[in-house]
Amino acid sequence: MAFPLTKNINYKNNVLHIDNCSIDYIAEQIGTPFYVYSKTRLIENIASCKTAFLSHNIHIHYAVKANSNLQILKTVAEQGLGADLVSGGELLRAKKAGITPEKMIFSGVGKNRTELIQAIKMHVGQFNVESAEELSLLSSLTMEHSSELTSPIKVALRVNPHVAVDTHKKITTGQKGNKFGIETELALLLFQKYLNHPHMKLMGLAMHIGSQIFDVSPYQEAIKKLLNLTSRVQKLGGDIQVLDLGGGFGINYGDKSPLDFTTIAQVIAEETKHFKGKVAIEPGRSLVADIGLLVSRINYVKESQPTPFLIVDAAMNDLMRPALYDALHPIKAVKEHTSSTTRLYDVVGPVCESTDIFAHKYPLDKNLKAGDLIAFFCSGAYSAVMSNSYNSRDVIPEMLVSNDKVNIIRKKISQEHLIKFEESEESFVF
Questions:
Q1: Secondary structure class of 364 (helix, strand, coil)
Q2: From CA 320, how far away is CA 358, in angstroms rounded?
């Protein structure tokens, strides 16, 4: 396994550090489990992304669903990126973080009336519409709120390009049968129907073909399909000014080489070299996954056949990806043992579910014992954002490290906090 250690998350004097802070020291101060991120690594990732894409005039909108912590979003805003958003809550967070509305793309297959009105009133820069029904509702809402509009809202139709990708079936989004996107022929009809709408301008095509993609060929195929559709729309009198190509660039969880920004940027630039409008991408995981760890303490080493269990204090409610997608996050002991002898463990959490398992037959130091710390790598994406309080467990804190300074960027949400929401005396009468 090509372990994803970086200069920001590495061992110093046999102890795992994030930037200049030792993980065991942070654990002593706040307890376990917790998430911890490197701000330096985040800024470096964004810089690499900007160097690759902006040189080809490709616009970058961070996919907020990967990690929506306010301090992460503030860093994204400070670095000048836009945002790809999929809920009213994400709209609120992006605005609070300082991302300007014109740099916001509002995506999502099931936006409701309240969220659409919220986005209209915020003057969001682009709506990615995913169905004829959504477009019809959006049309009526722009008529109702026309007095609040200074210009027609900008709309891109997200199409389903029917491109197969080699990834987990639960993270494909651009194949036949996926709930996302609009069929090509329907998209053409919608462009015709709304061509002269007074408050809504259909001006773009969008796609997102899936996540954890390591091959450029699906992007090439999908872009060709979008460009073909662009030509057909223009023959009908439409004007495609934006191609929004989504994200999904694969990252290294210890088993594959990442799809690096420079490679995919060159492919996109080559495929769109004759397109005269704006080209945009929506990276998420590739910017934030490797900035973070989930740190956990071993509760028990439970002897068992055929494999002993390493029972830790983190659980599936803290890291959902293994249970949802059979994902494997690389695991390391926080204190590196001098012995190179390993033992195979089933690494599991304390939640009362058989799916609360992080890894089967995973090689770790044979001398691990109760009380030792371990870290799950690449936990900066789709970890804290998916966390919950199943089994009445606390929602664990998030930490952000900048050089040798540690900031708590989300406090622990304890059961005491949550119980207060259940003690309300409010009622209503039918």
A1: strand
A2: 9
Characterize 241-251 residue by residue with b for buried, 16 or more Cβ atoms within 10 angstroms of its Cβ, and e for exposed.
bbbbbbbbbbb
Whole-number Å distance between alpha carbons of 121 and 271 = 36
255 pLDDT band, cuts 50/70/90, is confident
Please check if 284 is assigned to a binding site.
Answer: yes
Domains of the chain: 9-38+289-420 (2.40.37.10), 107-283 (3.20.20.10)
Identify which of 366, 356, 249, 255 has the alpha carbon closest to the alpha carbon of residue 312: 356
d(CA 398, CA 391): 20
Determine whether the annotation assigns residue 248 to a binding site.
yes
Which of the residues are catalytic? Answer: 352
- The runs of H, that is alpha helices, within 153-241 are 184-193, 217-235
CB 14 within 8 A of CB 6: no
Give the mean pLDDT of 179-202: 93
What sign does the CA torsion over 215, 77, 321, 28 have? Answer: positive
321 is in an annotated binding site: yes
Using the predicted structure, report yes or no on whether residue 135 has a pLDDT greater than 60: yes
pTM summary value: 0.94
Q: Quick one: pLDDT at residue 69?
A: 98
Tell me the percentage of the chain whose pLDDT exceeds 70: 96
